[in-house]
Amino acid sequence: MTPPEVEKPVPSTPSSVAMISTLGLISMIAGLSVVLAFQFTDPIIKEKEHLALEQAVFRVIPGIDEERATRRSFALSADGLVPLHEKSAANANLFAVYDASGKLAGIAMEGAAQGYQDVVHTLYGYDPDCECIVGLTIMKSTDTPGMGDKKTVEGNAKFMANFSHLSVELAADKRSLLHSIETVKHGTKTQAWEVDAISGATITSRAIGKGLSKSTDELLPLISRHLQEISKNPEIKQKTETEVTQ
Amino acid sequence: MANPASKQKPITADTFLRGLWEENPVFVMLLGLCPALAVTNSAINAIGMGGATTFVLLGSSALVSLLRKLIPKQVRIASYIVIIATFVTIVDYAIHALSLELYNALGAFIQLIVVNCVILGRAESFASKHRLTKSLVNALGVGVGFTFALLCLGSVREILGSGTLFGFPLFGDSYQPWVVMILPPGGFFVTGAWLLLFAWLKERKQRKVTQEKETVHAPG
Questions:
Q1: pLDDT bracket for residue B217 (50, 70, 90)
Q2: Which region among A207-221, B73-87, B136-150, B173-187 has the lowest average model confidence (pLDDT)?
């Protein structure tokens, strides 16, 4: 005789409608919360990023009185030079800094190249009078802490001295650089256009050098073409005109 | 399966303290070790990461607990992940707005909180079976325990590797930083040392308990 079949309890499955509506409800709560958080924090984030860039721009041009200096943003490409308003400054690749008298004190530009972990972003100051780089700050580096991170690189006075007077002289035809920036092994710098790497953080040093070299090779010949336009500071002109009419 | 008896248990100090000490996510359960090793090269990073995780733990536990009767078993994991991801996105925006420096230092590890098993573990094993207040108290305990563990790692690594604590120099210029401690191997060394200490403390406690039992049952 065969034993009587025992009916196995079938696990109850909730209807698809219940599952879909639950997931829909949760997704709705999620979407609403994310949008609210974005709406609330976006202006604060933009303001902070703007402030950080502002401070960095003034930091790479030495001898500037931050309170009295002014800044203009431009988008420079082979197609031409476009002055930008503060609101669209996110697209800028060139920041001209003027001293209290309205004279062009220097130009800040961004450099970026692949480092050890991720792209190393830098901001450097260019002085068109001496045709040299006069300052540098690391905007973002996620390279090994204690070796290639922002704090360690900026704290290395010997390495940072590379960028107090780094030659980026233009060739006679003003179409290219006389010598592109090169990063050399620690302790072997002999030329004014060479960057002496940090011992132990060669990849980060090379990334910084490469970022600068790429950016200067591309932008400096274009700057020389538009230098007169960049040197003008309309804000100062407007101020003088208002002072005269008063 | 949930024990129905445990549902009726009232909230006690143990609900909070369990996550902090006895079931510490890092030192006892060995969960969430990925951020624990990766971002603890300074004390401030440890606090930032711990705070972010605690916020996500609290938020997700609250929502999972509130919706626990509504979420069908078959779609619970998908629901928990969406809830956790929502709070992670919020905390990501919040940290970005609060401090750019901290945001850059923590990098992708803020977004990776979504897959931190401490949080999914809390949602699955506690919040989905308990009432809101109890879930919140438990989540807070685990969050504080996680932050405490990260701080233990972060402060030791920062002191040895940079000679500073919360950025303040401790030893003066003559101190030669032990750089390996803020590099990945340092994370393993310090975690190993803390685990050793915890295991020793636990063993000593157990030995004491057994000794006490033996003295009570000893004849004469």
A1: confident
A2: B173-187
Assigned token pair, A202? 């060669």
Measured between beta carbons, the chain B residues lying within 8 angstroms of A120 are none
Which residues from chain A sit within 8 angstroms of residue B100, using beta carbons?
48-49, 52
Beta strands A194-196 and A182-184, pairing class: parallel
CA distance A205 to A165: 17
pTM: 0.77
- Chain A, residues 19-38, CB within 8 A of chain B, namely 19, 22-23, 25-27, 29-30, 33-34, 37-38
Question: For residue A44, which residues of chain B lie inside 8 Å, CB to CB?
Answer: 97
Q: At what angle are helices A16-59 and B76-98 packed, to 10 degrees?
A: 20
Q: Interface pTM (ipTM) of the complex? A: 0.79
| Structure tokens given for A197 | 């790497």
Q: How far apart are alpha carbons A167 and B22 in whole angstroms? A: 62
What ranges do the domains of chain B cover? 13-167+178-216
Phi, psi of B42 (to 5 degrees): -150, 155
Joined tokens for residue B135? 């879930």
Whether the Cβ atoms of residue B158 and residue B165 lie closer than 8 Å to each other:
yes
> Nearest-CA neighbor of A159 among A176, A125, A136?
A136
